[in-house]
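Troubleshooting: if your tokenizer reports a length mismatch, compare your output against this known-good record of 345 residues.
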Amino acid sequence: MARYGADQNKVLGLYESGLYAEATAETFWLGEVIDHSVDDAEGLIESRYMGTTSRSFSDFDQGPRDVTGTLSYHPVDMRLPFLALGSVVDVSGTNISSHIVTEFDSDKCQNFFVSGAGTDMTVPACFTIEDSKQAPGTGRNFIRTIAGNVIDTMKISASEGEKVTVDIDYIGQTCTPSSGASSSITDPDIAPYMWSDCMLTLAGSSMDTAKSFSLETNNNMQVNHYIGSSALGRFYGRVIAPPVVGNRNHTLSVTMDLPSDDAIWLYENKYKGNNSFNATLDMDADVTATGSKHATFNMSGCQIVSMDNPSVLEGLNETTLEIRPQNIDGAAYDSSFKYNAWIPA
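Known-good structure output:
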């Protein structure tokens, strides 16, 4: 009997609905995946009723299916972070393409949900994840294909001396098992974004002593299992109807050595004075040419909601800021042909 070794695990992305982003492939490289877990809940309803003459349960009935997952990886592009933020427009080039993301609200239909169509589907871009564990022999692979995924929360983070990390919490519609061959994917051999590629700017001043940051977007997705089996004109049965976006929350957390040039105005003017400002996260990993691998997140209407400034016995004094941006847009330039495999409606 073979067992599943970690070296044979593979997690990749598949396009859904409409036009494939790559001309010759249905799969895409997520990045350097370091962890992936799926909670595939069958929602069985335990029943106990009179007349069975037994203290044990009577039976189980099929209840609502819910599929959620978490994904952590070191990114080589900003595909999933941008899909979490909003509507993506791609301008494809021969070697380098540009990707522009803007926020959208629930009055817009950005993408279709699991190959469906209709302007009532107010969900962000959906995609499929294939998680496979491979073993020798025919029909012995353990493959789960999670389709109709939308991003509930997304966090980009980095600490000094480390790779940038993206953490995704997603909501799926279906999880289908199989034991055949897994989809093929080729490692593009592109270096991931590093901490040293990142520069954080607050109100026009570069935070040169920043040691770590995290930028999180929470879409507060709402899901429903409607009573009607043909809700919204589609058959859903036990699976969820298209999720609906809730209130959007952005949070930027920064830890840095307290800079003498910036401490007072950050504390007095921005935090105590409750004055809003703009911020920028610039991730510049250009290697072959200007704009070959570069991503920028522009944050507006930022408010510092907490600023911790402890005094210590030795070493350097640190400060930790929690900042709430009101809105975020961004741009990325890299070798990914397209982020968005669908046609916005």
